[in-house]
Each structure stands twice: as structure tokens, then as C-alpha cells.
Design a protein that fits this description.
- It is built from six helices and seven strands; from the N terminus they run αββαβαβαβαββα.
- It is an alpha/beta fold.
- The chain has a single domain, classed as Glutaredoxin (3-Layer(aba) Sandwich), CATH 3.40.30.
- The longest helix has 19 residues.
- The radius of gyration is 16 Å and the shape is globular.
- The N terminus is likely disordered.
């Protein structure tokens, strides 16, 4: 019973408010490669290749087809044209398998942006973006990475509400300082 109470208390603390992303603004984002899917089509994704095109919005989410992750995917899909106009690449990453994410890319990401599989949360670990109580799962953490590979925004909060607004604002600010 005490374990159950302790687990409930830990979960309540995680849900109570924003945490702090482990990678700080100005840190170099670790390069990674992953199998990704967009619009139901699988392909290899490499961060360094995406950064050659412009800033990258990298968001980690706990699990495909859960309520918060579905809401967040819908919000990113709705804003995807704004990110694209600003020259940003948008990619979601989770510890799910690629077949499940291929389905998620169509139904919840609305074929607007890619999602990548991160088996055993290996990529999330390099970004120190894993859930403390479930280390094999990604935390809900969003990064904006400039083309030089440096983090310009890091935001962690299990609530999906502000991730799109914050990442879009960071990309807009970066673009204002770096016009096309």
C-alpha cells in the first residue's frame, strides 16, 4: 500500500507543473539517426541532414495513441504549415515501434510531419528526456535546434498545452534574426 501511495505521489509531482529540460539553451544537440514515418511512408531520418535545411523542432512524447500525445500531435499538425513557412523541420520521437508510428503518422499527425521510433528510449536518453518513473519512455520535452546544432529552446512539461506555442515562438524569433 505504501508503494502505491508513493507512486501516486510521484506521478502527482510529475503532473503538477513544468519540469526543466536537461539540455540547456546553447548546448549542442546530439546528432541521431532513426527510422521515421510520415504519411504512412517509412524512411531514415538524420538530425544533421535536417539541420542543413534550417531549424529543427524535435519533440519527445511518451506514447503514441494516448490522450495527451494525440492532442499534441493534432496541435503540431495544425501548426505544421507555419513551421514549414519558417523553414523548420518538425519531428516527433517516442519509444514506440515503427509500425505503430506509421499508423500514428497518418491518423494523429495527419500526414503533416514525421515521427520517429526510439527503441528503448536511446535517443531520449542522449537528450536526457526520459520519464523518471518510466525510464524506457520519453518525457514530453520539446527542443528547437538551430542549423548550427545548438539548442535555442528547451521545454519539458507532461501537459501538452504549451509545446506548440513555445516552439513556434522560438522558431519565429530565430527566423526574424536569420531572414531567408
Amino acid at each position: 500500500m505504501n508503494r502505491l501511495i508513493a507512486a501516486a505521489g510521484a506521478a502527482a509531482l510529475l503532473l503538477a507543473g513544468p519540469a526543466h529540460a536537461a539540455l540547456k539553451v546553447g548546448a549542442r544537440a546530439p546528432d541521431f539517426s532513426a527510422q521515421a514515418s510520415q504519411a504512412g511512408k517509412q524512411f531514415p531520418f538524420k538530425l544533421s541532414a535536417a539541420l542543413k535545411k534550417g531549424p529543427v523542432v524535435l519533440y519527445f512524447f511518451p506514447a503514441a495513441f494516448t490522450s495527451g500525445c494525440t492532442l499534441e500531435a493534432h496541435e503540431f499538425a495544425d501548426a505544421s504549415a507555419d513551421f514549414h513557412r519558417l523553414g523548420a523541420t518538425l519531428i516527433g520521437v517516442t519509444a514506440g515501434n515503427i509500425d505503430r508510428l506509421t499508423e500514428f503518422s497518418v491518423s494523429e499527425c495527419r500526414s503533416k510531419f514525421a515521427v520517429a521510433a526510439d527503441p528503448k528510449a536511446a535517443i531520449a536518453k542522449t537528450y536526457q528526456a526520459t520519464l523518471a518513473i518510466y525510464p524506457g519512455h520519453s518525457d514530453r520535452t520539446s527542443y528547437v535546434i538551430a542549423p548550427d546544432g545548438k539548442v535555442i529552446l528547451a521545454y519539458s512539461n507532461l501537459k501538452p498545452d504549451d509545446h506548440v506555442v513555445r516552439t513556434l515562438a522560438a522558431v519565429k524569433a530565430w527566423r526574424a534574426a536569420h531572414p531567408l
